[in-house]
Every structure is written in structure tokens, then in C-alpha cells.
Automatic annotation (TrEMBL), chain A:
Keyword Nucleus: yes
Stated name of the protein: PSF1 protein
Claim: Nucleus is one of the keywords in the record: yes
Subcellular location: Nucleus
Family statement: Belongs to the GINS1/PSF1 family.
Matching SUPFAM superfamilies: GINS helical bundle-like
Cellular component GO terms held in the UniProt record: GINS complex
Keywords recorded for this protein, A-Z: DNA replication, Nucleus
Stretches assigned to the DNA replication complex GINS protein PSF1 C-terminal domain: 146-196
An example Gene Ontology biological process: DNA strand elongation involved in mitotic DNA replication
InterPro entries found in the cross-reference section: GINS_A, GINS_bundle-like_dom_sf, GINS_Psf1, PSF1_C
Pfam families hit by this protein: PSF1_C, Sld5
Automatic annotation (TrEMBL), chain B:
GO biological process: mitotic DNA replication initiation
Main location: nucleus
Pfam families: PSF3_N, Sld5
Compartments reported by the entry: Nucleus
Protein name as annotated: GINS subunit domain-containing protein
UniProt domain GINS subunit: residue ranges: 70-165
Ligase found in the keyword field: no
Family label: Belongs to the GINS3/PSF3 family.
UniProtKB keywords: DNA replication, Nucleus
Residue intervals of the DNA replication complex GINS protein PSF3 N-terminal domain: 5-55
Record has Transcription as a keyword: no
Entry-linked InterPro entries: GINS_A (IPR021151), GINS_bundle-like_dom_sf (IPR036224), GINS_Psf3 (IPR010492), GINS_Psf3_sf (IPR038437), PSF3_N (IPR055221)
Length: 197, 185
């Protein structure tokens, strides 16, 4: 049935959990594009046939007209599915920078297509330059903290990190007393967890 | 066009409707019973809603009432609406019902949707607030997509309320990274 593949593509988006990214399905995407070109060819040949019979394409309502109409509608439908697929993924990608920061972890990066990676880089670049012009980090927590320092436990081997003017060794399972803004990035990437007393 | 990019709306439009062709159409392979790639007048074909809807507007087909809204379903819903497996009937029962009701000229679909939703909504809400997270999965399988959304909204509001009362860590791992470890909630 026409449009089935395109809908499969959209269903793939819906089947994942909300806000989760599914791997980019370039295979199915290309298949839908191929289906579109097929529709286009058949649409053209039907129109040409009507023209050869000397009929007015605008007003005739014969079998060929309805055939062409069905192809046209399928094209429009496929386009909508493809657009929705890209649009909804782009929305998630834009939200990534707010959630995980400008560096993407491996597990997300492999789900993106090449152009999407490019998009993410440019988007985060634009945001960075905006923030540097404002001289304000907009990605930090919106709620003012009660205490500028928090206690964290390291969940993964991060290694030696330079922050402010001192270096700290974040070995696995070690506990630290850190500035909130420094810890935030590690927590959102799942490398540390906040300890509440 | 407000819902152009809406995933749920797109999937709703994919529901199958049985139509009868009033006009012939050539050069299309949508009728599996036909040997040539032509559709004759009067042939009965199952089409996705997005195609059937557009064709009906141009008087090329006439639509039948889908099976999810026939007499059987009606009787089932009247008997005990909370236990009917609406998801297997039609995962977007309400949305699709709203779309199809004006097109097939069935006046009784509207009241059917309303009565089904009213009685099931109560059920969904109480279960979302009381059932433990593990016991909930059984109830979820018979809910339509719209009801599942409501159910999840109710649960997340409960979780947010608990968090507000008990307090908890302010920062959490970004949900997009998936849950490898069990959160200690």
C-alpha cells in the first residue's frame, strides 16, 4: 500500500520513549524517497497520456485523472511523513545541548546521521557565541541553589580534570565537594551523582 | 495545518477504512484483488484514511464505517467500557473517531466516544494514582494511545508531587541517555 513505508518511519519515532532518540534509519528513508520518485514518474506518464488524447488536464475527470490524483496524494503524504521525521528529530537534537552540553557522548552520536551531527555542531556553536556575547552561561540550572557547593560521588573513571586553578583526580567511587556549576555537566552526562544528606 | 508535524496525527491518518470506488482510476496498484493496475467502479478497497478522506472529498469514493465503531464495539462498550481492549481495535480510538464521524454521517459515533471516554477516564486516573509501577503494565495494554498519555501524565504528576514533598537531588542524569542504572527513587 502507498505510504506504508513512510508511516513506518514515523512509527519508529513514536515507538521510542518520549524524548529518546532512535537510530537514524537512512535505509528506510531512502526507500521512501525512491517511492516518491516512482510516484512522480507515474504521475507524469498519466498526465502525458491525457495530453496525448487531447484532453484538458485541468477539467477532465476520467480514470487517468483519478489515477494521477492518487499518485499526487501519495506524494504529499510521503513528504509529510519525511518532514515530520526530520523535524521531530531536529527538535530533540536542539534540546540535547541544554541537557547534555556541547560534547555528545558516544551513545548518542552513533544515532545521528552525518547532517544531523553537523546541525548539532552549528546549533551549539550559535548558542555558544550568543552566550559569550552575553557573558552568561544559560545552560546552568535555572533555580538558584541554596549552597554553591554540592557533594558528589564519581560513577565513572573520569581522570584528572583541571578546574579553576587546581587539578582534581576524579577516580571512580571517590567523593568530592565541588562547585555546583562544575559538577552539573558531569551529572547530566551520568558520570557523577549528587549526594543528598 | 497546525498538526503538520504531529506524529500522533500522522499515525492516526494511517488507519484503514473500507471504501467503494465511485469513479474508475487507472495506473495505480492499490487494489490487491485486481489483476491490472486499474481500479474499477464499484470495487471495494481498503485504503488508509489520508487517501480515503481526500478521495471522498472529490466524490471518487464512498466511505464505510470502520469496524472499530460498529455495533459489536458499541455493545461491548455499553457492557463494561473499562475492560474493552480499545488499543487492538484502534490505537487512536478517540482521535480517529472525531475525524471519521462527520465523514461517514454516523450521528451515534460522537455520543459513543463521549460515553466511552467518560467511564474509562475515571478508571485510568484512579489506577494511575494508586497502582504500583510494576502492576500497572497489565492495565496499560488495553488503553488507547490518548489514554496512555493521560495515564503517564497522571503518574508523572504524582512522582513530581512526591519529590516536592520528600525532596531529592536537584540534578539528574539527562533522560536522553537512557537508564542503565536503576535510579534510587
Amino acid at each position: 500500500m502507498y505510504g506504508r513505508k513512510a508511516c513506518q518511519l514515523v512509527k519508529e519515532l513514536a515507538s521510542g520513549e518520549k524524548g529518546q532518540l532512535t537510530p537514524y534509519n537512512s535505509d528506510l528513508f531512502d526507500q521512501v524517497i525512491a517511492e516518491c520518485s516512482q510516484h512522480h514518474l507515474e504521475l507524469q506518464s498519466l498526465i502525458r497520456k491525457m495530453q496525448e488524447e487531447g484532453l484538458d488536464v485541468q477539467t477532465t475527470r476520467n480514470a487517468d485523472h483519478y489515477g494521477a490524483l492518487i499518485h499526487h496524494l501519495s506524494l504529499v503524504r510521503n513528504k509529510r511523513c519525511l518532514m515530520a521525521y526530520m523535524y521531530n528529530r531536529a527538535e530533540i537534537i536542539r534540546s540535547l545541548i541544554w541537557k547534555v552540553g556541547p560534547v555528545l557522548p558516544q551513545q548518542i552520536q552513533e544515532k545521528l546521521s552525518h547532517t544531523e551531527e553537523e546541525y548539532f555542531k552549528k546549533h551549539s556553536g550559535a548558542l555558544q557565541s550568543y552566550m559569550s556575547r552575553l557573558d552568561l552561561d544559560l545552560t546552568v540550572d535555572m533555580v538558584p541553589p541554596k549552597d554553591p557547593y554540592i557533594q558528589v560521588r564519581v560513577l565513572d573513571d573520569i581522570g584528572v580534570v583541571l578546574s579553576d586553578d587546581k587539578t582534581t583526580n576524579f577516580a571512580c567511587h571517590s567523593m568530592h565537594f565541588l562547585k555546583r556549576t562544575d559538577a552539573e555537566q558531569f551529572i547530566s552526562r551520568g558520570l557523577m551523582e549528587e549526594l543528598t544528606g | 495545518m497546525a498538526k503538520y508535524y504531529d506524529i500522533d496525527d500522522i499515525i492516526t491518518d494511517e488507519e484503514i477504512v473500507a471504501v467503494i470506488f465511485q469513479k474508475a482510476a487507472s495506473g495505480v496498484g492499490i487494489d490487491p484483488s485486481s489483476e491490472t493496475d486499474c481500479v474499477e467502479v464499484g470495487s471495494k478497497v481498503e485504503l488508509p484514511f489520508w487517501l480515503a478522506h481526500e478521495l471522498q472529498q472529490r466524490q471518487a469514493v464512498s466511505m464505510n464505517i470502520p469496524t472499530s465503531f460498529n455495533q459489536n464495539t458499541r455493545l461491548e462498550i455499553q457492557a463494561d467500557s473499562a475492560c474493552v481492549d480499545l488499543r487492538s481495535q484502534c490505537p487512536y480510538f478517540y482521535e480517529f473517531g472525531c475525524k471519521i464521524a462527520p465523514l461517514v454521517g454516523a450521528r451515534n459515533i460522537g455520543p459513543l466516544l463521549l460515553s466511552a471516554f467518560k467511564s474509562r477516564y475515571k478508571e485510568v486516573l484512579t489506577k494511575a494514582h494508586t497502582a504500583a509501577f510494576t502492576a500497572a503494565s497489565k492495565n496499560l495494554t488495553i488503553l488507547t494511545k490518548e489514554e496512555t498519555n493521560l495515564y503517564e501524565a497522571a503518574q508523572s504528576s504524582m512522582a513530581a508531587f512526591k519529590k516536592w514533598r520528600m525532596g531529592g537531588p536537584r540534578f539528574q542524569k539527562a533522560s536522553i541517555l537512557g537508564r542503565k542504572r536503576k535510579s534510587n527513587e
